[in-house]
């Protein structure tokens, strides 16, 4: 499927809670490869020492099914930053919830990057609607939202971001 582009990447986070001082526990990135296959990757993130345990919520853990002990298997925050930057270099980044995703991305990036680089990285994240609505004709946009509505939200960063790549593939097929 040659009309797919792999420069658009879907970002999703799972977090310790939804409070203002919450922090990322998992980051997911997904996109469509040029052949139409969905590429999806995720990494667990260990709590950085500057992130407060007061922001950990067992209710949130129950939703995403990531117990705190499991985070010990994750990347250190600076390693997650390196992974994120390598995966997103040269790509457009979109989010279905930019308010939250940029909050958690900021918290992650601030563990190892200077403030100017953090601001530059955050400015790259766009609302999915801002990117897709001008890009897709009405029929394709309808197919995108219909497919998205049919896909279960697993509340894990990789599969959640992959839902959007799957919906975009449906939109391209409907054009």
UniProtKB/TrEMBL annotation:
InterPro entries: RNaseH-like_sf, RNaseH_sf
Entry's Gene Ontology molecular function annotations: nucleic acid binding
The protein's name: Exonuclease domain-containing protein
Organism of origin: Limimaricola cinnabarinus LL-001
